[in-house]
Amino acid sequence: MTVGDMRQGNNAPRQPASHARNGEPAEADGARPSWISTFIPRAANGEPLPADTRLEQMRMLVESQKLPIPYAFPLLMVPYVACFAQYIAWYWLVVPVVLVVLANWVNRKTMLEFVATRPTADNIREWERRFAATAFLFAFSISSTAIFLWVPGDALLQSFVLTALALVLAPLALITACYMPSFYASTVPIVGVIVVRLVNHGDLLHVSLAAVLVMFTVLLAQLTARLNGIMLHSITLREDKSGLIEQLFKAKRESDAARARAEEANRAKSHFLANMSHELRTPLNAIIGFSEVMASEIFGKHSVPTYKEYAHDINRSGQHLLGLINDVLDLSRIEAGRFQITEEEVDLVQLAEDCRRIVEIRAQAQRVTIVANFGDDLPIVFGDARALRQTWINLLTNAVKFSPPGSEVLMFARMEADGGLRFGIHDNGPGIAESEIEKVLHAFTQGASGLAQPGKGSGLGLSIVKGLLAVHGGRFELKSTVGQGTQAECVLPPQRLRARPAMAKRA
Q1: What are 209-268's pLDDT values in tens digits?
Q2: Range of 187's domain?
Q3: Looking at the 3D structure of the chain, how many domains does it have?
Q4: Ranges of H-type helices in 149-203
Q5: What is the pLDDT of residue 315?
Q6: Is 306 in the same domain as 357?
Q7: CATH code of residue 478
Q8: Which of 130, 137, 140 has the alpha carbon at shortest distance from 55?
Q9: Where are the alpha helices (DSSP H) in 39-179?
């Protein structure tokens, strides 16, 4: 495995950083954080950073090893040692070179093992110790130059050694800024060696330089901590984003599963309704037919007049049940998107008049007057005649059914400003509360007025009208005021309209 493959280690599963902020334990095993954790930034609540966040910082440290800076140190040792060849024995020159090469090899090996093992929160303490140890070893190998290459009495060479070590601090801070324990472990040994060498001179100048170096190191630590905070914030945002993405995928999976169950349930419902329609319609047609024969007394008068009334009741009940079955089947096809319309040119006004004559008998029985108010020269509708007929009948029947005796039901049709066609029914019935308007548009649901008059409907009429308008690209609007009446209005888009022929207009 190469250092370029280290990105693969970023795929290890982890939880969002928000877990620690919500009061959960920072460690996966619930134990106290290791002593190394005291040297790293803390969460907003003062608790140590969660283990998964520290692991991500380690991964970023591994990613930084792809920079050429760590590999530059062994190469720089060659000209560095050459400057001291005439002052120090060759075996003293070899020692720091070997130490630097060895430390670099150990550091690289540790990074590769970290990627290969894909550590988790369970073994984070072991890796914290290994990272700190490798950083300290690398820093010691660099600072060994101040031990083995120190030339007593030669201020120029001493200054060269100390300056070189001081310059090493900047790239080390750049590399280890993403993980503060490694920064401290690599910085403290180098600064310590330099300070000791300077203080050993004992004069004011060298002591002042040592003090300046300490202050510089403190400033460097602050800047590095600030950079680490920015990186930590990016880690938190990335982990939170990962958590949100995971939740989104989970919700999508649940949604897909729910949709699959719904589709299966819908198919089962359609199959059930198809079978039941056949099983119910056959005996119902027989019941309706025989009851009509009995009510008409085709084969002779009944010996008991009550039987004729019973036959009428049976016929009406059968017709009601058959109509209910047809409504359920229509609604099922509409909801399943399988309601096929046969498009043709339809005279909506003539269709409305036909429907009025059908409902007129029932309206007269309830002493309800149906009034028509249609606009002049209304266009021809390009749609399904059966569906539009059912729309008118459902609206008329529903209005007459709930209108009090002596009231009026208004049928209307007029053009809209946008070129559409609006038609519908206005009645003076009990009305529907605003909170119930959405409810009555759903199948098998009635408002308070419908519940107060049981047996007057199935709660399917308005939902079927809404569906029939939808398949025509139109919409259904229901407005009502309790105690004043209801306005059921349908709107067809301009695309569904055709100009009436000139001959028809003159007629």
Answers
A1: 888 888 888 888 888 878 877 777 777 777 778 788 888 899 899 999 998 898 888 778
A2: 46-201
A3: 3
A4: 155-176, 180-201
A5: 81
A6: no
A7: 3.30.565.10
A8: 130
A9: 51-64, 69-82, 90-117, 124-143, 145-148, 155-176
- Same domain? For 177 and 283 the reply is no
Please, which residues have CB within 8 angstroms of residue 439's CB and are 6 or more apart in sequence? Answer: 445, 447
In whole angstroms, what is the distance from residue 51 CA to residue 55 CA? Answer: 6
Structural domain includes residue 32: no
Can you spell out the DSSP letters for 197-208?
A: HHHHH-SHHHHH
Same domain, 472 and 429: yes
Domain match, 170 and 191 both: yes
pLDDT in tens, 275-326: 776 677 778 888 888 888 888 888 778 777 788 888 888 887 787 677 777 7
Over the stretch 155-202, which tens digit does the pLDDT of each residue have? 677 777 777 777 777 777 777 777 788 888 888 888 888 888 778 877
**472 Cβ contact partners less than 8 Å away, ≥ 6 residues apart:** 341, 383, 384, 387, 492, 496
Q: Sign (positive/negative) of CA torsion 195, 198, 200, 202?
A: negative
- Give residue 45's pLDDT: 55
Considering the chain, what percentage of its residues have pLDDT values greater than 70? 76
Using pLDDT thresholds of 50, 70 and 90, give the confidence band for residue 79.
low
Which of 185, 201, 217 is the last residue in one of the domains? 201
Same domain, 196 and 290: no
Of the candidates 446, 440, 345, the residue with the CA atom closest to the CA atom of residue 388: 345
- Looking at the structure, tell me whether residues 284 and 373 fall in a common domain: no
Query: How many other CB atoms are there within 10 angstroms of residue 450's CB atom?
Result: 20
Pair (301, 387) in one structural domain: no
**What is the amino acid identity at position 394?**
N
Q: Is 370 within 8 Å of 333 (Cβ atoms)?
A: no
One domain, residues 418 and 460 = yes
Domain boundary among 317, 335, 353: 335
Domain contains 313: yes
